[in-house]
């Protein structure tokens, strides 16, 4: 079963408070989401392999570590996942960025892919799927399934806030996927919003209703 990593760093908890606050405007909201995403990237990449190389400092020669050529891919789920991309790229500038767009079929209520653009070597990359909210888990579950169908072999899911119900859905469907969250909240309400949550992440990022 995939592991759920809930990040308790003081900076993340501090910034998440203002992300939740309904009085935070879109500009500040976007900046905070970017900053928290960058802080989360630190933990998400903790297991990257290293190799030792020889370098010259201004004082002497020495052996030192670099990341050993691991290929990464960042895949936001449209549209709210876009708000997390810049923060991730600040720490992972060499990562390729793909995009997955989903909508819910009004008759079947199942997620349907309407857009998918991925790096050509997806099977060689560790993919980091971004979605600020893990509520019912339906979109994340479907997006990860689409990626696997296209050849992905290593996937992590990164969210700002998750509900226990959404975590269970993703874990049941994809037990090989680790989930990284800034906070696990109490529950979903009758409208499938996370409680206490932060509202609709896409609307707050882009100033829409």
Description of the molecule:
The protein is of the alpha/beta class and 209 residues long. 31% of the residues lie in helices and 32% in strands. The chain has six helices and 13 strands. The strands form three sheets. Strands 1, 4, 5, 6, 7, 8, 9, 10 and 11 form a nine-stranded mixed beta sheet that branches. It starts with a strand and ends with a helix. The model has no long low-confidence stretch (mean pLDDT 93).
Shape: globular
Content-based structural category: alpha/beta
Structure summary, number of beta strands? 13
Poorly predicted parts: none
Give the helix tally. 6
Helix content range: 25-40%
Overall pLDDT metric: 93
Q: SSE order, as H and E?
A: EHHEEEHEEEEEHEHEEEH
Distance between the termini: 37 Å
| Biggest sheet descriptor | 9 strands, mixed
Q: What is the strand content?
A: 25-35%
């Amino acid at each position: 079963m995939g592991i759920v990593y809930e990040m308790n760093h003081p900076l993340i908890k501090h910034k998440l408070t203002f992300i939740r606050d309904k009085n935070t405007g879109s500009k500040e909201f976007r900046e905070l989401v970017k900053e928290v995403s960058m802080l989360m990237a630190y933990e998400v990449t903790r297991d990257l392999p290293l190799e030792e190389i020889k370098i010259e400092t201004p004082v002497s020669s020495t052996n030192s570590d670099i990341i050993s050529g691991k290929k990464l891919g960042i895949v936001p789920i449209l549209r709210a996942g876009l708000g997390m991309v810049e923060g991730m790229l600040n720490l992972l500038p060499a990562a390729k960025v793909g995009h997955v767009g989903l909508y819910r079929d009004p008759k079947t209520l199942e997620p349907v892919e309407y857009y998918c653009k991925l790096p050509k070597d997806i099977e060689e990359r560790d993919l980091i799927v971004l979605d600020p909210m893990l509520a019912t888990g339906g979109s994340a579950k479907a997006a990860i399934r689409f990626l696997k169908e296209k050849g992905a072999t290593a996937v992590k899911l990164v969210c700002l806030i998750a509900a226990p119900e959404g975590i269970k859905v993703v874990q049941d469907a994809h037990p090989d996927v680790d989930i990284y969250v800034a906070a696990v909240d109490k529950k979903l309400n009758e409208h499938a919003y996370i409680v206490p949550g932060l509202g609709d992440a896409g609307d707050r990022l882009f100033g829409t209703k």
